[in-house]
Amino acid sequence: MEFNVFLLAKYPFLEEAKSFLESYSTVSFENLSSDEDYTRAVKRGVERIKEAILFKKISFKNENLIDFKAEILSFPIAVAFIAALNDDFLRNIYATAEGKRIHELLKRDSYSDLELLLRDQKINFYPSEDSPSSLYKIAFSEYLKVSPQKWGKIWKLVNRQIKLGFVYVTREELSRLVSEHIKNRILERSRHPIDAESFSGPLKKGYIELKNVWDSYKSRFAKFEKETSEVSFPPCMVRLLSRQENGENLSHVERRSLVTYLIAKGQSIEEIINLLKSSPDFKESIARYQVEHLAGLKGSKKKYSPPSCETMKSYGLCFSDEWCKGIKHPLQYKGKPFSQTSKN
Amino acid sequence: MNESELRFLKSVYSEYYLKHSNLVEVPPPVGKREIGFVIGNEKVMRRHMSFQDNEAIRKYILNNLPWDAFHSCSVYEFPENPIDKKNIIWNEIAFDIDAKDLGCEGEVYWICDRCGEVLKKGLQKCPRCENELREVNFITSTCIEKTYEKAKELVFSLIEDFGISEKEIKIFYSGHMGFHVYVDAQVFREISQDERREIIDFLLLNELQPSLLVTFSQLQVKNIGVGRRVISNMIKIIESPTDYVFLDEISVKKIEQRKNELISSIKEGSLKLILSLLGQRILKRIIQEALSMSKIPIDPSVTLDEHRIIRMPGTLNSKSSFPKFEVSLNERIYPLDLLPSYGEKSIKLKIKFAPSLKVKGETFKKLYNTEEEIPRFYAAYLVSKGVAQVV
Lengths: 344, 391
Description:
Chain A is mainly α.
């Protein structure tokens, strides 16, 4: 079987990459530690994750094409590391960075590989006949599966061209969708449990290195968690806060609801920015402007209030508990009375 | 409600179910759905029940005459278990449109249960005897018709926008002031809550960015998705301009003169003619109005909650003692005229108050502090509303 190794190095998650690795693995498991290709692949696997943690993106240089075998093999190794480290926050950071890398590669190569990726990921796409501004259409259910609404209002179904069950998209948009889809598949793959104890040789060394990098990165967030007493937070905000802390990409509405609530509860701009750093798509300058804008320090100088319970309900973000009865606004939430809290 | 009213309602329920238990129909697979009933004089809700088939449910209903009956939209492995242990096999999706969400409260009265005073205006206490007043919302034919139209718009959107086949959609009159649209389509079976939220937002126009639909620079409206709804509502405005108070006499006259031309240009998504004829200010008002008309005001909690139980088709609704039944999408009908036949014999009632209402082709007149012989099915409606007593 002939392989387009450069293509596999760019997109090591392709089905074909599995066959390539199977056909190439002539080294027995016992001798893996001494195999040079393998050692370089582990090194690149560690690098993939470190880049994701520190720069929120994974690089792709032309020399990666020369060492194509290490590049292809480094991907399943990196996923195995993520599975062994078993932290949802890290899982999100890594998968998002891989997604970004794919999107940037597609864009760099003028989307020439887009249709190949769509077919590989079994995303059904069709040429669009009736919308001049779109090149493709995809089933609305597939469109919704990749949750693109998290990227802003323009991606919400309400703002899309939809007809007879199909959403119309441009090539650029479809490229973001397929990248998001692959990101979700990486998230799934990295949830398969792997016991770090089973690692040896370069894998064990790589795992220890990554654990140290990750632990020191995470300790930066511990401060906020300690200072935030969740007892008086309503369940809707506790959910948003915990999803944010787990590195999930909150939608615009979700993030805005949480930030305006935290501002109203007296959290400082710095504390909120620090919390938002866990977002996979975090960009400090943008986040800072947005938080300061919501706090009334920038732009229109209007301080925004958190949404009422009714609005939270209409967003589908209300998850009331027994202490929500009778309140109309998340800020009115008092939570479990102190006497009851202390009994538990 | 005292003993004789409860007995009377039970007799109407019994008559209805003896005649029409075959209308009680839970969608298949019946045995894999959670069933719930409101039973007894205390009106207690009993959930997490399961029945082998529709026959077993009908038998239970005939024996127990529940006030209300519900089935789950989801299909479970263990329907009788508590919610977290039911294990969903697949979800079907329900939409609930209530007249209230269209700003149609029905005919609202405040009634004093002590002295029988009836007020049109909301007051805390009865001006005659100082007793607390009770708010009663009566069904009105206008509200029913308006809500039915919105339910049809919803069905049309499911077909045109989401590509759902008409065969997979059922539309029901809820028995009170709303309609349920029930969809069992493969494409909706496995969607998550987040995805349901997107569909809800699409219908409620939450976070809509009008500038993505209407491009003023090109004077175009996109005739697709929400844009299709906006165009169809703009045409409605042009068809009957006198119904819209923001259109002044001159604008109405101009519209009437070139109505057909305007309609065909709007159908193509072009705003050029309407702008040149009516000016920017009126065009903007028309678009604003069309946008607000394009909202399909479903109850988000019903569609979002995958464990939701919904009123069982063919059963009576205790708010009115009218049944929930399937209505056709295509006919131009008034749903309350299609009420199945039951309770035709008359009964004498002491009526505090009853506004006029059209049911089964007959218009029941407005009644105030009187004793009157009326058909039992309509008597059950007034008794359920707490405005009449059996003599």
